[in-house]
Design brief:
three-stranded mixed beta sheet, seven-stranded parallel beta sheet, alpha/beta, 305 residues
């Protein structure tokens, strides 16, 4: 992954996460990068520091962000609150977002990474940015707070943008994946273990997987699109791909055979319209099959046929 900026001071919040860690490490090659997280995992902190990232411990649930710079060039908020404690997750998503924006209100732009999980389940609807919102992930007991907290955090980001005159983009991320993992990587492990893969009974379950390289490459454009009051945009790969389709391709790469378990107790298809993303930023460049092959090469090369 190449660095999309040079000579900038960039705060990456949630720096130990699957999406943010490779971005922080790549950006540190040519920029001053401050990685913010709770840092319960010392191994991840050590990896970030080895890549040149300055690590600062914060706690969004309590609003403790005092160790961060007050006037960086850019803020990339990839923090995720999914403890399943409603008070903590809403405090982190709402209060934490406001605390970040207030503390770093002199930044040039603020990127708030949201999720397509904010959309109300509607079968095979293709969701636009103004489509109805709802509790998409509440069907999963282990992510009971996720969708609601993400919706609330978006409202906080819009308020904070107006309150602090901070140009902001809210990017609703689909299915990120790459060498650090992702949902398709979990499915690969399930295939290896012979575990059935849940898919919604209203098949196929369609999403827009987006590779780490494209996530990093689109950051400058997303920040350029930031406005006071917030620009909201769907963020995913060009290709609309179903779980059934990508697991089938993982099977072609590895010789493993996926077994599907249709059920109502899983999230529904979330296919999104990407016209606004393409107009503001351009299209992704990593095709899903190439990206999935690279993911397997990086994570499970011994499984390749």
């Amino acid at each position: 992954m190449s660095s999309a900026f040079e000579g900038k001071t960039i705060v990456v919040v949630g720096a130990t996460g699957q999406v943010a860690q490779p971005i922080a490490e790549a950006l540190a090659a040519n920029n001053t990068v401050i990685g913010a997280a709770r840092f319960h995992d010392e191994g991840k902190r050590s990896a970030l520091e080895a890549a040149g990232v300055t690590c600062v411990a914060i706690d969004l649930a309590t609003g403790d962000v005092a160790g961060l710079p007050e006037a960086p060039d850019y803020v990339l908020n990839f923090a995720v609150a999914k403890s399943n404690d409603w008070t903590r997750d809403l405090d982190a998503g709402v209060g934490g977002t406001i605390a970040l924006m207030e503390h770093m209100q002199r930044a040039q732009a603020f990127l708030h990474c949201s999720s397509t999980a904010v959309y109300k389940p509607m079968g095979h609807e293709i969701f636009h940015e103004d489509s109805p919102l709802g509790d998409n992930h509440g069907v999963w007991p282990f992510l009971a707070t996720y969708s609601t907290a993400k919706i609330a955090a978006e409202a906080a980001a819009r308020y904070g943008s107006r309150r602090f005159s901070l140009k902001t983009t809210i990017a609703r991320l689909s299915v990120p994946y790459g060498s650090f993992g992702g949902w398709p990587a979990i499915h690969l492990e399930m295939m290896k273990n012979g575990s059935p893969i849940p898919v919604h009974s209203n098949q196929p379950s369609i999403y827009h997987p987006i590779h780490d390289d494209d996530i990093a490459a689109m950051l400058p454009g997303l920040l350029r699109a930031a406005e006071i009051g917030a620009t909201t945009v769907n963020w995913g790969g060009n290709d609309a791909v179903s779980i059934e389709q990508w697991c089938g391709y993982l099977g072609e790469l590895t010789g493993l055979s996926p077994t599907f378990a249709p059920t109502e107790a899983t999230i529904d298809s979330v296919q999104v319209n990407l016209d606004r993303l393409h107009a503001l930023v351009g299209e992704t460049t990593v095709s899903w099959k190439d990206g999935f092959r690279r993911m397997v090469e990086a994570r499970r090369p011994e499984l390749l046929v």
